[in-house]
Amino acid sequence: MQEPSQIVHRKVLPGGITVLFQKAPHTVSASAGVFVRVGSRHESSKNAGYCHFLEHMLFKDTAKRSAKQQAEDIERVGGFTNAATSREYTYFHVTVAGKHIGIGLELLAEMIYEPLLKQSDIDNEAGVILEELQGYEDSPEDYIHDFYYQNFFPKNSLGRDIIGTRESVSGVTHKSILDFYDTYYHTENMFLSISGNFEPDEIFTIAAKYFNRTRVKKREGNSLSLPKKKWGYFPKKKKLEQVYFILGGEGFAREFHNASSASLFTHILGGGTSSRLFQKVREEKGLCYHITAYPLLLMLMLASIVLFVLLLKKSLLLVWRLFRTKLNRF
C-alpha cells in the first residue's frame, strides 16, 4: 500500500484548471505553484522574451493590490513568492506556513488572473530586464549555456535566449503583452500544484475558492516544430583566464523510463562530487575547477546529454580524453 505522501490527487475544477495535490504529513509549511505550458520555444522572433517579461509583470499591480502590497501581505505571514521561465513552461510559486495557505493561493490567483499590465510598469520593467540581459552576457557560465542552445538548435525558437533581445524587450507594449497573455494564460493551459499537510477534500475546497475561474483561449499560439540539430565545434573567443566548455550529444526519446535512465546515467557520470568525472578529472588529476553532466529533457524531441566543464585551456584535450575513456566504460 502506498504511503499518503506518495499519492498524487488530481481534480479538474469546474472553471477548467487542473489541481494536483500531494500530502506532506510531517511538514508545517505548504507550497503551491501555478505551471503554465508556455516557454520561450512558443515565441516568435517578434515576441522573443515575452514569456520572461510576462513572468516579471505578474508581480506588478493587480486589480486588487499594488505590487508593494502583494509583497507585504505574503511576507507579513512569513511566506515568499518567486517564479521562473524555461524554454517550455513558466511557473509561479508560493511557500507559507500551512495555516496561511489561503493567503498564498489568493495572491497566486490574483497574479495569474488579474494583472493590470500597465504601460508605466512595462516601461520600468524593460529597464530591469535589459540590466538582467547584460548580467547574463557578463557571466561566462550563463552565456555559454545560451550559446550552446543557439548553435545546437539554429533557426528554431529553442535556440533563442529565454530573456529575448534588446530590440524585443524594448518594444513591449501593453497591447502586445496582453495579446500574448490572452493566448497562453487560459485555464486549460495551466496546472495548480499544492503540497502540505492537508486532506485532499480540504485543500481542493480552498483551491476552488480562489482558482475556480474560467479564462478561455482568445487566439491560437505559434505552432511548434521539431528542431533540426546542428553538430559541430563552435568556439567563441572572450577575454577570460579560463575555458568554459560544453559538450552535448543526442540522447533518448522523451518518455518517462528514458528520462529516468538519462538522469541516472548523467548523475553517475558527473552529477556530484562522488561522480566518476569529478573524481577522475578534478580530484585525481586536478585538471579543472568544475565539471558536471546533466540531461537536457525537452518535450516533442530527443533529450540531449550535456557535459559542462570549467578549466584552463591547456587541460582541455586531456579532459576530453578522460571523458571519452569514462564514457566507453559504461
TrEMBL record:
One of its GO terms (molecular function) is metal ion binding. The chain crosses the membrane at residues 293-312. Residues 19-165 form the Peptidase M16 N-terminal domain. The keyword Zinc-finger does not apply. It holds the Pfam family Peptidase_M16_C. Residues 172-294 form the Peptidase M16 C-terminal domain. Keywords: Membrane, Transmembrane, Transmembrane helix. Belongs to the peptidase M16 family. This is Peptidase, M16 family. It comes from Leptospira interrogans serovar Pyrogenes str. 200701872.
